[in-house]
Amino acid sequence: MQNSDLLQVAQNYGCPLYVYDADKIVSQYNRLVKAFNKIENFKVHYAVKALSNVNILKLLKNEGCGLDTVSIEEVLLGLHAGFDPSEIMYTPNGVSFEEIERVAQMGVQINIDNLSILEHFGAKYPTVPVCIRVNPHVMAGGNANISVGHIDSKFGISIHQMPHILRIVENTKMHINGIHMHTGSDILDVEVFLYAAEILFESAKQFKTLDFIDFGSGFKVPYKKGDIETDIEEFGRKLSKRFLAFEKEYGRSLTLVFEPGKFLVSEAGSFLAKVNVVKQTTSTVFAGVDTGFNHLIRPMLYGAEHHIENISNIKGKERYYSVVGYICETDTFATNRRISEIHEGDILNFKNAGAYCFSMASNYNSRTKPAEVLWRNGAAVLIRERETFEDILRNQVEIDI
């Protein structure tokens, strides 16, 4: 997508607006597959939580991708998009046993990360294949909120509880067909990931009926010019070599699975916002835009940095701005950031807005959610309508007061 294309899309559909580049999503998928081309049985499960628009799911389905889901609603979205239940992995945390049962009855691959649930499920459904999510106790990730493999994490069954897992499996005679881990997001150090992989291999040796090993994901993507990212090609070479060696040790072939979300869709996304005001204070120049953390919460929640371009004045002289939203609390997207000179009415492009942006949007301040557009084959297609005030009222039940 060129800046001129984005300006035209903003004019046609209004702001704020999410725009996704289909070609970038497909190229990221193919890049990951190519990095592991020495693995005969390799599967990518897209993490639906990153961006759950059904059209994005269909796009990835056409490439041969499966799905990683964390809720029954995400499972239903996948089925609606045409995925076969066997192509969907369900990895809940802290949900009711009834929800897990309902998903299992759909024929979806179940992934359990709790000893009590494992025992309960094994006793009731011993013939249903189950994957086990272990916690490798490896601290990884770019922020405490997205580091999920450390010792105090609520996710996964501790590797130190392996004797308990084996006891449950033996007592229930349940069928374990996969082993899984996910250490966190924004992992840069390949060696940390490989270290955690060794722990997973050791855990896998305890089970003789595995069909796959799922290494989760968490690859770091660049958020600004010159930013560092996970070297997928290097990682592919190193883990492929180790995985092939483990297959020989294990005695038969296995499927290697990854569950990327951000890696596939983050860089494909642009979030377009219009500048409402430019406000000079005693020490700061604010650019106030027609959105807030109700639409893009990552900078406030994670301290994430999204590169911002003024696509209305891309070659203008750069000045320092603090870009802020219209919410009734401090919602700062950028502080003292060098951006091409901004005027009221300009369109700003927040880069890397494909992952965990719309999917974490809310109606805070009773604001409506933006529209979503897919840029495909050189044209923009609306894939979600902008909410209206009627949508705000839709499920409210008014009573006589």
TrEMBL record:
Ranges of residues in domain Orn/DAP/Arg decarboxylase 2 N-terminal: 23-266
The keyword Transmembrane is assigned to this record: no
Residues annotated with N6-(pyridoxal phosphate)lysine modification: 49
Residues annotated as domain Orn/DAP/Arg decarboxylase 2 C-terminal: 18-354
Enzyme class, spelled out: lyase
Requisite cofactors: pyridoxal 5'-phosphate
Residues the record lists as binding pyridoxal 5'-phosphate: 218, 356
Family: Belongs to the Orn/Lys/Arg decarboxylase class-II family. LysA subfamily.
Free-text function comment from the UniProt entry: Specifically catalyzes the decarboxylation of meso-diaminopimelate (meso-DAP) to L-lysine.
The protein's name in its UniProt record: Diaminopimelate decarboxylase
